[in-house]
Every structure is written in C-alpha cells, then in structure tokens.
Amino acid sequence: MDRQTISALAHADHPIAAPISPAHVERLLARTKLKTGARILDLGCGEAAWTLRALELFPETSADGVDISPGGLAAAAKDAQARGLAGRIRLHETSAAGFTAAEPYDLVLCVGATHAFGGLAPTLEAVRSFVKPGGLALIGEGFWEQNPSPALLTRLGATPDEYADLAGTVARMEEPGFRVVHGHTSERGEWDEYEWSWTGSLIRWAAAHPGPDGDTALAAALDHRDMWLNGYRGVLGFVTLLLLRT
User: Fold this and answer.
1) How far is Cα 129 from Cα 163, in angstroms, rounded to an integer?
2) How far is CA 176 from the centre of its chain?
3) I need a surface site. Which of 20, 118, 211, 217 has the fewest CB within 10 A?
C-alpha cells in the first residue's frame, strides 16, 4: 500500500486535510473578500474542501483544483455536484509542480501541500507566479513551537531548519514579495482532532480489511500515533497565512 493510498484513507473523515477546524477555514476564506468574477487556484486540493467552500461564500467566482489523487478528485467532483458547484470548478489530475495556467488568479491556495514543490521556498515562488499583482495567497505550513530534539528530527526525517519558529515563518513567507495580511495559528484542539481522525480512520479501515493491506494500514496508523503523542505534539505547530502579493 503506497503513501498516497494511506493518506487518502487517513483523511476520509477529515477532508480539510490540515489541522484546522471548518469554522477557521471559513473565517480565513471570508478574509479574502473576493470580488465577482474572481479566479481561484487550489494546488494540492485533495477533496477541494477549501475551494468548494470559497465558491459558496463568493458567488460568480470560479476555480481550478489540482491534485495527483484520483480518489480525492473523484470525491471533489461528487461533492461539487451535490452542492450545485460542478459548473464552477475544473479539476486537474496532475502534479501541483507541473500545473500551468494561461491567466493569473485572484487567490491561490496551498495548505499543507508544500511538499509537492519540495518545501516552502519553492512553493512560494510557484504560488507567486500564479497570483496576479495585488492578488492573494493562502499558504499553510508547519513551524517549530519548541526546539525539536535530535531524536525527533531523526524520526521525522527532518533538519532543524526544515521549519522556522512562528516569527521566522512569517519572515520566510514575506521574503519572495508577499505581505501577511491575516492568519490563523492552529490550536492544540484542532491538532488533536486532526490527529485522532487521521489515526482512527486508518485503524478502523484496517480492522475492516484483514490481510496484508490491513496490516500495513494499522502499522502506519500506530507508528504515526506514537510519533505524534510521544514526539511532535506541542513541538510542531501549523499556521495558515493570508498573503498579499506586492
């Protein structure tokens, strides 16, 4: 069972796919104040939970969602149809790094998907190329709430500069020509809800599918849970920043 399949199963009950509550997703989207005719791009959209809510909040806008997961895109298409939004969103099964567009966008999202570009810096460069001057981006990224131990870094396969602290993350976000105009730092309860959902969904799937795949899913869930509870809980934070392209 590959990593993409495990991730899809783990996020089955948490389509936002980031440690953020629906209420805070809506609050962040409302802050964009998109105008009639605005164009939205979601890089690494998954089931397009963010983008579909944006389309509901801002009538007469349109969107493109990009992801490599056929299952995620199928779920997004089904949800869009059920919510009467199918005619306003185009879904693209391709890598975020390989996507191209003929016109710039008013809002570009990349939340919890900076790995698709190889990290935050290349993500910001790519996102900026898609945002029209004066347009907006919503970027969600991890940051160190506390200095990680060497053991935790080894387990995460990370380096100390993989993330900055919160102030450093804001500075990194602004460096390539953005200004932070709003943001949300995920609360401990949001993180816990996300992680309990991630591990619990995978454990329940494993129990319903005995055999090699079930064993692989269960091992992944238990390893992830241990790394969270005995490793990065309270050490790794998550922040979603609304950026204005200068």
Assistant:
1) 23
2) 20
3) 211
Determine the 3-state secondary structure of 140 from DSSP.
strand
pLDDT at position 172 is 97
The predicted structure's pLDDT at residue 121: 96
Count of helices and strands (H, E) across the chain: 9, 7
The phi, psi pair for 110, rounded to 5°, reads: -150, 90
Amino acid residing at 216:
T
Q: Which residue has the tokens 């105009």?
A: 181
Q: Which of 97, 130, 94, 100 is nearest to 114 (CA)?
A: 97
Q: pTM score, two decimals?
A: 0.95
Query: Which H helix or E strand runs over 111?
Result: strand 105-111
The fourth-level CATH superfamily of domain 22-186+238-245 is: Vaccinia Virus protein VP39 (3.40.50.150)
The 10s digit of each residue's pLDDT in 93-143 is: 999 999 999 999 999 999 999 999 999 999 999 999 999 999 999 999 999
